[in-house]
Specification:
This protein is of the alpha/beta class. The chain folds into two domains: 133 residues, Rossmann fold (3-Layer(aba) Sandwich); 55 residues, Winged helix-like DNA-binding domain superfamily/Winged helix DNA-binding domain (Arc Repressor Mutant, subunit A). The protein has ten helices and six strands. Strands 2-1-3-4-5-6 form a six-stranded parallel beta sheet, sandwiched between helices. Helix 7 crosses helix 9.
Length: 200
């Protein structure tokens, strides 16, 4: 029996998915979580075989939750998403995620993916994988990405500078460079774009 934890902030989707997976003879849904934080707590407590995590959850998203779970328990993690962007796939794989699946897949297909991942294999949806191969690489430097991460919630320049041990002027220069490279007018737009593409 494969013990499965499901995390999705949409109650209807989470409960419907759990009900469908429970129809499978070899799958046992042991937990249904509303967010990434509770998924980490329940995974640590219950030690499921596979954690099925929605990417877009408030607070701790599916990739960050998977990274924490994988540090704490010997589970396997699958991220499901409505917006399967190539950059997010790269971020998920870097975090050690074992499966990456769009929400458009049927429940039977998802059950098969869970079995494959539980058996020790990795699964990436073929269309997402093809898109990832042709997707453009991030034009920002590592330091520019650090600046975006440190200011992703709208932190002021002075706070970003203190966090990164840089001068405020250096941070402003990095922000100017980021905006020029991405052809955007605000730091917030740049942070949103970088997260959407899986760069941060």
């Amino acid at each position: 029996m494969i013990r499965v934890l499901i995390a999705d902030d949409e109650d209807m989707i989470r409960s419907a998915l759990a009900s469908l997976l429970r129809l499978e003879d070899d799958l046992d849904v042991v937990a249904e979580c509303r967010d990434g934080e509770s998924a980490v707590a329940e995974a640590t407590r219950l030690r499921p075989d596979v954690c099925l995590l929605d990417l877009e959850m408030p607070g701790l998203d599916g990739v960050d939750a998977a990274a924490r779970i994988l540090r704490l328990v010997p589970a396997r993690c699958i991220v499901v998403t409505r917006h399967a962007r190539p950059g997010v796939l790269r971020r998920a794989l870097s975090a050690g995620v074992h499966g990456f699946v769009p929400k458009s897949r049927r429940a039977e297909d998802l059950a098969a993916v869970i079995r494959e991942v539980a058996a020790g294999r990795r699964y990436v949806d073929p269309e997402i994988a093809a898109d990832a191969l042709s997707d453009e690489r991030c034009p920002l430097t590592d330091r520019e990405l650090d600046v975006l991460r440190a200011g992703a919630r709208g932190e002021p320049i002075a706070q970003i500078a203190a966090t990164l041990h840089l001068s405020a002027g250096t941070v402003r220069n990095h922000v100017s460079s980021i905006l020029a490279k991405l052809h955007l007018s605000t730091r917030q737009q740049a942070a949103i774009l970088a997260r959407e593409r899986g760069w941060i």
